[in-house]
Design goal:
heterodimer; A: 676 residues; mainly alpha; 26 helices; B: 93 residues; mitochondrion inner membrane (chain B); transmembrane helix (chain B); mitochondrion (chain B); membrane (chain B)
Chain lengths: 676, 93
């Protein structure tokens, strides 16, 4: 900022704005590259010690490679004798540095000092020129470097300015010529002016403001240039007019920002008008004022009575206030300068204008306010209407809801009532039913009891009657049973008679079968018939049981058979009649032989010997006395008895049967006797 | 042999086969004894003859000795059987 202001003071806007802009544009892009270059340049300038390296590098481009080998060999040969005992442990660092100094100076010295100096100078000059040029170029890119360069490098500023000028002229050849042409004049005149008017810094300020808003600034610049061209001689009033115009233009954006949208349009129109008018006014007023001092001599008055500061009646508005303030500032400045007489006219006009503007603004404001008030009123009315509508609607809805609810409530109440009534009816019906059922139950119980009683009575009567009849029937049955007994008794008698007869018949049949047979034959059938006829008669049963079963199974031999068999048995017994007790073969043979020689007895022979017994039995048998015969035979002993054993058993059987039959016949006789 | 005839004649009844009639008991024993005597004596005769042929150069006495042995043994057996029968009779009595 400081730099630009100073420069502008020096060159009065001669400095091309485009150049500055261009510098700023390129700055960011090229900063890096230039910084490195700048450093190099700075390092290059100061240390002069690099001289030794530069020539060595340049001159020994070709021979640089060869030199290294010789120094290694030469120092090794030369140094070993001199420094061998001193420092043997660290030969690397000690040995290597020494060789270059002696080698480097040795080579250029041979070529010539002047030539080296000339080369050095040439390079220095070349580098310097290059560095200067680069500095100038870079100063156009970087602002900081520009400052540094212009300040510290001699002739740097001039060179940079010249370059910028050239650039500007290239871009704007027409403007550049004018500016340059006029610049010299203005610069010469400006030096004298600032003390009186003090408008110079204002111009700078305006310029600064113009920079910010490019559109307006360009216009302003154009207007300024035009004004400057047309009015070259008179400089004093010009800045004032310009400032005035600029003030308005500068203030306008602020107004735009502050005011509302309604005012904006109106103002925009006004501004345009003003912007258009102001230059015209400026152009028109300037010649008038130029004339005024010429014509009016007694315009000493105005200086004596300085221009009154403007006072707008209704200065409530900020814009108007600002305008008034600015105008007052101008007035004060003019008063201070004592040039009131000069500018009184214009100031007056300006005052009028300002007051008019103020009035207009006021009128606009009032109109806007009225409109706003109207709108607000209309809005309020509409809001009231809406509110009333809403309230009425809400009330209507509430009423409707209340009515609905009431209806619902009533309906609900009715429904509940109905339900309760139904329930009560149901309960009553049930109770009635219950009571009826109870009564019915009681009736039924009574009926049942009555029926029971009735049945009991009937039963009693029936039983009484029955008992009476039954008694008679029982007596009858007793009589009948007695009669039956009598009949059975008679039957029994008849039966027993029949049985005894049958028994007799059966016994006779058995006896007949026994006596009839010439040969022994079984008489089981007869016996069975007898047993059946006897019908569990114990005596008959016992008699039958006493008979040996073989007797009735095989039959019993007759008396003739028995006698016949006795004869054979008797012969055998006689053979063994003489046997001793424990007889052997010899005694048997002797008894057999001797028995043949023995005498035979006759009749009932007395004696216990075998021969006499045999004769007795034979006689008994012949008599038919089986019992005695058996008794005689039974008295035998030893071999005789064993030999006669079978015959004896036969006889016994016959005897048993005869006995049993006798018993049965007696029993039958007894039975018949019993019956009778 | 004369005693055996009446024994056979007395057995027209079929039951005599199964069990001898009591009056035929002694006769039966005698029959056994005789048969036994014949068998044993013939056996002894046979042995005696064989011995006489083999050992005694056809002498007569070994044959008679054999018969004697056989008859003796038969006699003894008959005797013992008779005595046994007698014992049994006594026991029964």
């Amino acid at each position: 900022m400081l730099r630009t202001s100073i420069r502008s003071v020096r060159a009065l806007g001669s400095r091309p704005a485009a150049a500055v802009a261009g510098r700023q544009w390129q700055a960011s892009a090229a900063r890096r590259a230039v910084v490195s270059g700048q450093r190099f340049y700075a390092d290059d300038k100061k240390p002069v010690v690099d001289e030794a390296k530069l020539p060595a590098a340049e001159t020994l481009t070709a021979p640089t490679t060869p030199p290294p080998p010789p120094p290694q060999t030469t120092p090794a040969a030369t140094i070993t004798p001199e420094q061998a005992p001193l420092t043997p442990p660290a030969p690397g660092p000690a040995v290597v540095p020494p060789p270059p100094p002696p080698v480097a100076p040795i080579v250029p010295k041979k070529k010539g000092f002047f030539r080296r100096l000339r080369n050095f100078l040439l390079k220095l000059v070349l580098l310097g020129v290059l560095g200067f040029g680069g500095g100038v170029w870079y100063s156009r890119i970087n602002d900081n470097f520009h400052d540094f360069f212009t300040q510290y490098v001699p002739y740097g500023e001039e060179a940079v300015l010249y370059l910028e000028e050239l650039d500007f002229r290239k871009r704007f050849p027409n403007v550049a010529n004018r500016v340059t042409g006029r610049r010299a004049d203005t610069a010469s005149e400006q030096v004298s002016i600032p003390a009186q008017s003090g408008a110079s810094w204002r111009v700078a300020d305006g310029d600064h403001a113009g920079r910010q808003s490019s559109g307006v600034a360009q216009k302003v610049v154009a207007a300024k240039d035009a004004v400057k061209d047309t009015v070259k001689d008179i400089v004093k009033p010009e800045p004032a007019a310009v400032t005035k115009a600029k003030k308005e233009t500068a203030a306008l954006p602020k107004v735009e920002a502050k005011d509302a949208a309604l005012e904006k349009k109106v103002k925009g129109v006004e501004e345009k008008k003003e912007v258009a008018v102001i230059p015209a006014a400026a152009t028109s007023s300037k010649p008038k004022e130029f004339r005024a001092p010429d014509v009016n001599e007694p315009s000493v008055w105005p200086p004596a009575s300085p221009i009154d500061p403007l006072s707008v009646p209704h200065a409530d508005d900020a814009i108007v206030q600002q305008l008034v303030h600015m105008l007052n500032d101008i007035i004060t400045v003019i008063n201070y300068d004592g040039a009131a007489d000069k500018y009184s006219q214009t100031i007056w006009k300006a005052k009028d204008e300002v007051s008019k503007v103020g009035e207009r603004i006021l009128s606009i404001k009032s109109a806007a306010e009225e409109e706003a008030a109207k709108q607000v009123k209309a809005r309020i009315d509409s809001f009231d209407k809406h509110a009333n509508d809403l309230v009425s609607r809400l009330e209507a809805i509430m009423l409707a809801q209340e009515q609905q609810w009431r209806q619902e409530f009533e309906a609900e109440v009715e429904r509940l009532k109905h339900n309760y009534d139904d329930k009560i009816k149901l309960i009553q019906e049930r109770e009635q039913k219950l009571s009826e059922q109870k009564l019915q139950n009681k009736l039924l119980e009574q009926a049942v009891e009555l029926q029971r009683q009735f049945s009991r009575d009937i039963k009693k009567h029936v039983e009484e009657e029955r008992e009476g009849r039954l008694g008679r029937i029982e007596s009858l049955s007793r009589a009948v049973s007695e009669l039956e007994k009598l009949t059975t008794g008679l039957n029994e008698v008849v039966d027993t008679n029949l049985r005894t007869q049958q028994l007799h018949v059966a016994v006779e049949a058995v006896r007949a079968s026994l006596e009839d047979a010439h040969h022994p034959r079984p008489f089981i059938k007869e016996l069975v018939a007898l047993k059946e006829i006897a019908a569990d008669d114990p005596v008959v049963d016992a008699a039958i049981a006493s008979i040996h079963p073989s007797a009735y199974q095989r039959g019993i031999s007759t008396s003739a058979e028995l006698i016949d068999r006795f004869r054979r048995v008797a012969a055998e017994v006689r053979k063994a009649s003489l046997l001793p007790e424990d007889a052997g073969v010899a005694s048997h043979a002797s008894s057999y032989l001797l028995s043949k020689v023995m005498f035979k007895k006759q009749g009932l022979a007395a004696g216990d010997d075998v021969e006499s017994i045999l004769t007795r039995t034979q006689t008994f048998l012949e008599e038919g006395d089986l019992d005695n015969a058996a008794r005689e035979m039974n008295t035998l002993g030893g071999w005789a008895k064993t030999l006669s054993r079978d015959w004896l058993s036969e006889v016994r059987k016959v005897l048993e049967v005869q006995q049993a039959l006798d018993v049965i016949t007696t029993e039958a006789r007894l039975q018949s006797l019993k019956v009778e | 042999m004369a005693d055996t005839a009446p024994a056979t004649t007395t057995s027209p009844t079929s039951r005599a086969v199964s069990r001898p009639v009591s009056e035929a008991l002694l006769n039966e024993k005698w029959d056994r004894c005789f048969s036994n005597l014949i068998i044993k004596s013939s056996l002894g005769l046979g042995f005696g003859v064989v011995f006489s042929v083999l050992l005694f150069k056809r002498r007569a006495w070994p044959a008679f000795v054999g018969v004697g042995f056989g008859a003796g043994r038969a006699y003894e057996e008959c005797n013992s059987s008779l005595k046994q029968a007698a014992k049994e009779i006594r026991k029964q009595a």
